[in-house]
Amino acid sequence: MEPTGLERLTHPRLNKGTAFTAEERKRYKLDGLLPHRISTMEQQLDRNLANFRSKANDIEKYIYLNALHRRNERLYFRMLIDNIDELMPIVYTPTVGQACQKFATIFRETSGFYISLEDRGNIKALLQNWPEPDVRLIVVTDGERILGLGDLGTNGMGIPIGKLALYCACAGVKPEHCLPIMLDVGTENETLRNDALYLGLRQARARGNEYAEFVDEFIQAVKALHPEALLQFEDFATPNAISLLDRYQNKLLCFNDDIQGTAAVALAGLFAATHLTKIPLEDKRYLFVGAGSAASGIGNLLEEALVNTGQTREAAREAISFVDYDGLVTNQRENLPLHVEAYAKDSPPMDLLDSVKNLKPHVIIGATGAPGIFSADVIQTMAKNHERPVIFALSNPTAHAECTAEDAYHHSSGRAIFASGSPFGPVFVNGAYKIPGQGNNAYIFPGLGLGALLGTLTEINNDILICAAHALAKQVSDKQLKQGCLYPPLCEIRDVSFDIALAVAKKGRELGVCREQKSDAALKKALKTYIYDPRY
Question: How many CB atoms lie within 10 A of CB 48?
Answer without folding.
Answer: 20
